Amino acid sequence: MWFVTLLLLIFILGIIILVHEFGHFITAKKSGVHIYEFSIGMGPIIHTHKGKDKIDYNIRAFPIGGFVSMAGEVYEDDGKIKPEKFLCNKKAWQRFMILSAGVFNNFVMAFVFLFFIAMIWNPTPITPKLGTVLEGSAAMEAGLRSGDKIVSINGKKVHSWDVAQIYLYYERDVYDFTILRDGKEQTISVTPKVVEEDGEERRMFGFQIAAPSETGFLASLKYAWQKFWSIVQSMVVTLGGLFTGNLSLNALSGPVGMYQVVGESIQYGLSQIMYLIALLSINVGFLNILPFPAFDGGRIFFMIIEKIKGSKINPKLENTMNNVGFVLLMLLMVYITFQDILHLF
Q: Catalytic residue at 21?
């Protein structure tokens, strides 16, 4: 079973990376940028193919990333290539399209998957409305009832279950739920019951999510759109939680954590696997658009600074910052992976 889970994880990461890098690849190629290499994975090359277009298409050993190596990503780096074929010499709008195409592809892929999930299955609703409230639970004892719509948690606005789950993950003794009941808002304080599972403490509230009511083509489009933005918003909240200290880095998952999630998803069937692909695809797109060196968003940020100041940033400085950013990301990945491994024991 572990082998099947591993293969599925590699497949999921591979298709997400392929879709992302293909966005960079096809827009760069259509824009006349010289491309050296298209690689899926990182590390040593385990398979290579020289295309008729003289581009090296490679599969590398570790399925944790990928890249498109383009001429002149920061500055002219090859005296044999014509100046107009360097990325750095393309017009600003062309560079923006090339750099953002990977994120765009990931977002479109996620939207399509979410649409088909809604069309084929009965997806989890987005609106934070309570379904069954269990007898004897913390929620029932505090006064929450089936049909209550959550407006905010601990004073923070909630528009979806994705965001609500992030706020419920914050470690607190008491959670203040502002709910809408019979057209009126009221605040109810809930003290969750703490149980221990697999060596970790979990806070149990004792309510379920209300069942969805809309089905069909248009309802599926609506669901995909709302769910997409709900997931994006939850990522913004997560990022904010990391900066404020409400969430620790231990809340993040690396390859080991993703392996566990994939194993759990297999038990729930194809719909959960498709949702995981959509979720991870949005994750990849969201992270890459952040204005951090080594990310696509970081390169776009440098480009925006160039437009504001009216001249190019020192190429060596930009290249150094991108390299430092990449090293920091690798160190973060090592730390998260180490924490994932510790959670196994």
A: yes
